[in-house]
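Worked example 2:
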Amino acid sequence: MSAQNPSGVSLLGVIRTLNQLQQDGAIGEWAIFGSVAYSLWTEPITTGDVDVLISVENDLEYARQLSAVAGVGSGFAASGFGVELHGTRVELLPSTLSQLYADALRNAAPHTIKGETVRLVTPPYLIVMALVAWRSDPTRGVYDEQRARRLLLLTTRETAERLVERYADRTPGVTPQRLRERFARVLA
């Protein structure tokens, strides 16, 4: 699926469904991140899913919202975070997973796609997310590095540095030194 135009209807269908669920009060605020957000900010890339952050206060609320989305889709995927909507795998991640996710959701920017409003995680937050997700596999690491470099063109170095420093000590799964080293490679 191309994130820029994932068979046309799939992404639009996902957006419409999530907007309706939010309007009905079944889910909270939400925003797209990951490859689809990257594609909508920069250039089309191929992806197998749509990554979505949803605003929740706790695990029980997350389970309720995930169930609400699964109720209109075709059930849960194997990972426990995913559902299928309109033939598209949608990964729903709770804002409570990290402070980075909560802040990225809070600062997401609205966009309009074919008349539907959707919020996208902004480039500075996508940069930090790419640095955190940086794969140890050399091929995938190059991919994450290139992605972060392209996103850096859409923000200032200072803004990105400020966010890297803000989350260096508060991001599970990556040491502050590793996050700073990855960012230095992006700037090189």
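Residues 1-9 have pLDDT under 50 and may be disordered. The CA atoms of residues 21 and 27 lie 6 Å apart.
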